[in-house]
Amino acid sequence: MFKKSLLISLLIASTAYSSLSIAAENSLLNVSYDVTREFYKDFNGAFVKYWKEKTGATVTINQSHGGSSKQARSVSDGLEADIITMNQSPDIDILYTRAKLIPKDWQKRLPYASSPTSSTTVFLVRKGNPKQIKDWDDLVKPGIAVVIPNPKTSGNGKYSYLAAWGYVIKKGGDETKACSASTILSSSATIILSS
């Protein structure tokens, strides 16, 4: 799955990158969210090699990382990004609503509504997994404490709640049960991290 996502990402990036006019010094700035920092170190290297083979030109890709919404605001406030990769569509929408830097219907430009990958929520447990946490049902049991990003300020926090909601629906639950599970998850979150 990762390999397929990487190939799709390379295709989309090559389309996006190749449509840019690369400056005389042959450098690009990719403004992205924190979680992608390590991914783009590898991805950018693969693209630089691909671009050199395709065009004979050498390109340097610089990175700027931070919270997704903060990065989107920076670009809309004037940070001159060549590539923008955000973790949620509302952050891309900011580029239209605040600065008209992209078309309102930006999602129609590329396949998969311009979202070539999906996120995974990972459960980290104490050594030996003493409470035997294996899925979302286990997280809402009494006595389980959860550390989760703040969904008001973090894309990953929003995705965590949406993943819990989707888990309930996928198992045949309705919106009432999904809402209840999300509420329980929220109340068991002893620490809510801000991004």
List segments where confidence is low: pLDDT < 50 over at least 5 consecutive residues: 1-12, 18-24
* Annotation, overall tally of beta strands: 5
- Rounded to an integer in angstroms, the radius of gyration calculated over CA atoms is 20 Å
What's the CATH first level of the largest domain?
Alpha Beta
Please identify, by name, the CATH architecture of the largest domain. Answer: 3-Layer(aba) Sandwich
Task: Please bin the fraction of helical residues.
Answer: 40-55%
- Portion of residues in beta strands equals 5-15%
**How many domain modules?**
2
* Helix and strand pattern: HEHEHEHHEHHE
Q: CATH superfamily of the largest domain, please?
A: Periplasmic binding protein-like II
Do you know the CATH topology of the largest domain? D-Maltodextrin-Binding Protein, domain 2
Alpha carbon gap, first and last residue? 28 Å
Question: Would you write up a description of this structure?
Answer:
- Mean pLDDT is 81; it is low at 1-12 and 18-24.
- Helix 2 links the parallel strand 1 (27-33) and strand 2 (60-66).
- The longest helix is centred in the N-terminal third of the chain and has 19 residues, at 37-55.
- The chain has two domains: 2-114, 3-Layer(aba) Sandwich (D-Maltodextrin-Binding Protein, domain 2), CATH 3.40.190.10; 136-193, no CATH class.
- With 195 residues, the protein is α/β, with parallel strands linked by helices.
- The strands form two sheets. Strands 2-1-3 form a three-stranded parallel sheet.
- The relative contact order is 0.11.
- It has helices at 2-18, 37-55, 68-76, 89-97, 136-139, 155-170, 175-188; strands at residues 27-33, 60-66, 83-85, 146-149, 189-193.
